[in-house]
Write a structure and sequence with these properties.
The complex is a heterodimer of chains A (182) and B (494).
Chain A: H1 2-25, H2 32-40, H3 54-63, H4 75-86, E1 104-108, H5 118-122, E2 128-129, E3 137-138, E4 158-162
Antiparallel strand pairs in A: 1-4, 2-3
Helix pairs in contact in A: 2-3
Chain B: E1 26-27, E2 34-37, E3 47-48, E4 55-56, E5 61-64, E6 73-74, E7 79-88, E8 96-104, H1 123-132, H2 145-149, E9 158-163, H3 172-195, E10 199-205, H4 209-220, E11 226-231, H5 240-248, E12 263-267, H6 268-280, E13 286-293, E14 299-304, H7 309-316, E15 324-327, E16 334-335, E17 349-353, H8 372-376, H9 383-391, H10 395-400, H11 411-415, H12 422-470, H13 473-492
Parallel strand pairs in B: 1-14, 9-10, 9-12, 10-11, 13-17
Antiparallel strand pairs in B: 2-8, 3-5, 4-7, 5-6, 7-8, 13-14, 15-16, 15-17
Helix pairs in contact in B: 3-4, 3-6, 9-12
The chains are: A mainly alpha (182), B alpha/beta (494).
Chain lengths: 182, 494
């Protein structure tokens, strides 16, 4: 009787110790679901969703503080992906956050730039190069098209250029399927 | 005799090749204007080196290659560059591409041409020559040959030379082999030397007996162990992976390269250009192209790159009811957006179409899951499932079903009793998947940059706090106000 109690108690202590060790050793930092949601978001960091960047929005979605339909650059395809991931109902893009715009990059009219650095401070991905009283320019390859640099510019020399289709990014269209009953 | 193998699937479409092989290859006359695109190869487009108004010599470099996978572009004839502008590209999209427009002076005056000794020149020099001559794979993929031939010490068991030319209507490689077999074999010898292959096999479909005979005769006196194998005519036996399977019995792994199984493969036309580049010092400025279909005198022309398709078709006399042109073959080619587009390195055939010759496809009917597409698929895929996934935009599943092993040969289209444009769906799905991957990558970069920015801002804040803390309270009191403003200003700048 006593030995059985001791054996069971011993097993309990060993397993408890293992579990306790595992809880410390394999501790998960942060919420992994947030990472998954963040992976789906387009990382424009544009703030159109009302949160200061994609990760804060991802956190809000997971906490249930925000809906999944507040990201215009991601479009409906991304809402569908979020709905699939989180097991929520698909919703069309929220009207509060505005229409999705064509993908574009910022372009600085360099002859009008006064070198105030305000756009540099606004750019969430450090895609604008320049220094005080020096001309600024946008690194087009790094620009996410968030438009955050447009408003701060005191001389309105930044405009958004839609990315045009060229031979490099052209892709085949969905086949027109003239499906017809014969 | 070599024991030949077979690849799965394949079809026997009507060949239509004999009509363009009755006449020998003719040299196309100089067109009034040549339109030379800066991108005629896989990889990065060449950087233009000439300005409008500049006089160029034949063979002069007018587009410099970018680092990495790229190739130079040469002036196809001597004359004056009249424009450097966007022109319709020979591309299914109909989009514009940067081209140099050259007005020939009619003199065909060459710039410097230096021959190399193919058997004594160092290998590196030969490779450099291939690169400088702008040699790319003329079988259709236009991958720079110098990169392919640089095997970097890897052991090559077999050099496969592709004379398959399996697609209907096309006969440019056939005619080239019939008329210029000795030059092709000399080119093969150079490639043999560069790759250090143990053996060389030229695979030619057995529906080209004249080409087979000519190549066999030329190979007899060769310094390289060249074997000419007549492979059974079965579309797509001229596909790189299919031909390698037929002549070596080995399969190129999914997502891999022939190099992974110790094989390199070049087209016969590429071998011909290699010979010209090395022994004559001529860069790639012309190619043989089949002009056929709805024309009075279908034949093969040796034409300068940049010749507008309309000028070339005019030579063969297009029929009155010609309603367009296909570049490439009827199975893998594409309808040209305009007859003004130029011939480029990748162009092997121009087919004039008429409603009688190429009637519009009948309307697509629902898939009845008969499985005929799977029977003919040379990549052993399940085309009906891929179609299903592509149509439903279920790209992950399509990728799981090895969509990217599809070589877009069109066998499934050809046999589909419901006339579904299957390959169009695969092309669409491939494009979407590539775009998604690119966007995902861009998003990852943006995330990293944003996180680094947040980290940097945090660090700057801490550094500022640390600086303020270390300063003696007296000094801080004395210069506190002016310093603080100065720092805010400088802290704001990047």
């Amino acid at each position: 009787m006593l030995s059985a109690v001791l054996v069971v108690a011993g097993i309990a202590v060993v397993l408890g110790g293992l579990l306790g060790y595992a809880a410390i050793r394999f501790r998960v930092e942060g919420n992994p679901v947030v990472d998954e949601v963040d992976k789906i978001l387009p990382q424009t960091q544009c703030g159109q969703c009302g949160f200061p960047g994609c990760r804060p929005y991802a956190e809000a979605i997971v906490e249930g503080a925000a809906d999944i339909n507040r990201c215009p650059p991601g479009g409906e395809a991304n809402i569908q992906r979020l709905a699939d991931l989180l097991g929520r109902e698909f919703k069309p893009l929220s009207e509060e956050v505005g229409e999705p715009r064509p993908r574009s990059v910022a372009l600085i009219d360099e002859s009008r730039c006064i070198g105030c650095t305000l756009c540099i401070q606004a750019c969430p991905v450090d895609a604008i190069l320049g220094a005080s009283k020096q001309m600024h320019t946008v690194i087009a390859a790094e620009c996410t098209g968030c438009e955050l640099c447009v408003a701060p510019c005191p001389v309105d020399c930044i405009r958004m250029e839609p990315i045009e289709e060229d031979l490099g990014n052209w892709r085949w269209r969905y086949p027109e399927n003239p499906l017809r009953a014969a | 005799m070599r024991r030949l193998h077979s690849f799965p699937g394949g079809i026997h479409p009507p060949e239509h090749k004999e009509q363009s092989t009755r006449l020998p290859i003719a040299a196309a006359p100089l067109p009034p204007k040549l339109v030379v695109p800066m991108q005629q190869h896989a990889g990065a487009a060449a950087r233009p080196l000439v300005a409008p108004g500049e006089r160029v010599l034949k063979g002069q470099v007018i587009g410099a290659p970018e680092p990495g996978v790229s190739a130079p572009v040469h002036a196809p004839t001597s004359g004056i560059v009249v424009a450097l502008e966007l022109q319709p590209a020979p591309h299914p999209s109909g989009l514009m591409a940067l081209c140099a427009v050259i007005e020939p002076d009619g003199e065909e005056r060459w710039g410097g041409r230096a021959a190399l000794d193919p058997f004594h020149a160092p290998g590196d020099e030969l490779l450099r020559r291939l690169h400088e001559a702008g040699i790319v794979g003329l079988g259709g993929a236009v991958f720079p040959s110098a990169i392919k031939a640089r095997v970097n010490g890897r052991r090559i068991a077999t050099l496969v030379v592709n004379g398959g030319e399996c697609e209907p209507y096309i006969s440019c490689d056939d005619m080239l082999m019939r008329e210029r077999a000795p030059e092709i074999v000399r080119g093969i010898e150079i490639l043999y030397r560069l790759t250090g292959a143990a053996e060389v096999v030229v695979g030619i479909e057995d529906n080209k007996p004249e080409a087979l005979a000519a190549m066999r005769a030329a190979a007899r006196g060769s310094r390289a162990p060249v074997e000419v194998a007549g492979v059974p005519a079965l579309y797509p036996a001229g596909g790189e992976r299919q031909l390698i399977k037929v002549v070596t019995g080995q399969e190129v792994p999914s997502g891999g390269l022939p190099l992974d199984i110790g094989v390199v493969c070049f087209n016969v036309a590429t071998a011909y250009c290699v010979q010209r580049a090395v022994e004559l010092g001529e860069p790639l400025v012309s190619r043989v192209i089949t002009v056929t279909g709805n024309v009075h005198a279908p034949r093969n022309y040796e034409c300068l790159l940049g010749t507008p398709v309309a000028d070339l078709a005019e030579l063969a006399g297009p029929g009155a009811d010609t309603d367009g042109y296909i570049m490439g073959g009827p199975l893998m080619g594409f309808r040209l957006p305009s007859p003004r587009v130029p011939v480029v390195k990748a162009s092997n055939c121009i087919i004039a179409t008429s409603p009688a010759l190429f009637p519009p496809p009948p309307p697509a009917m629902p898939c009845i899951r008969c499985g005929r597409c799977a029977e003919v698929c040379p990549a052993r895929l399940q085309p009906m499932d891929l179609y299903w996934f592509a149509k439903a935009r279920n790209f992950e599943r399509a990728e799981e079903f090895s969509l990217f092993d599809c070589i877009e040969c069109g066998c499934c289209d050809f046999v589909c009793p419901s006339h579904i444009p299957l390959v169009e769906y695969y092309k669409f799905a491939k494009g979407e998947i590539r775009t998604l991957k690119r966007e995902r990558q861009a998003a990852d970069t943006a995330r990293d940059r944003h996180e680094f920015r947040l980290f940097r801002q945090e660090r700057e804040k801490q550094e500022r706090a640390a600086r303020l803390a270390t300063r003696s309270p007296k000094a801080a009191h004395a210069e506190g106000a002016p310093r603080a403003t100065a720092e805010t200003a400088s802290g704001g700048e990047e």
